[in-house]
């Protein structure tokens, strides 16, 4: 059970980080600047996912 929980947490962390990167790419592709809402939220999602993955593997 504990191993499945750990694997699920790591998988969700990667999904969240990829979602953040996709948000940044989409915002920039649609003409948003560095302070566009999609870019800011995307960077936050990517950082959140990376931090969560780091903490899960620690």
Description:
There is one protein chain. With 58 residues, the protein is mainly alpha-helical. The protein has one domain. The chain is 84% helix and 0% strand. The chain contains 2 helices and no strands. The two termini are 19 Å apart. The relative contact order is 0.21.
Overall spatial form? elongated
Given the structure, what is the number of helices? Answer: 2
Give the C-alpha Rg: 13 Å
> How many strands in all?
0
Count of domain modules:
1
List unreliable stretches of 5+ residues: none
- Helicity, in percent? over 70%
The SSE order reads: HH
Largest sheet, strands/sense/barrel: none
Which class of secondary structure composition applies to the elements?
mainly alpha
Beta-strand percentage?
under 5%
Quote the average pLDDT. 95
Termini Cα gap: 19 Å
Task: Give the secondary structure arrangement, pairings included.
Blueprint: H1 2-29, H2 37-57
Helix pairs in contact: 1-2
Supply database-style keywords.
58 residues; mainly alpha; single chain
Summary of the model, kept short:
The radius of gyration is 13 Å and the shape is elongated. It is mostly helical.
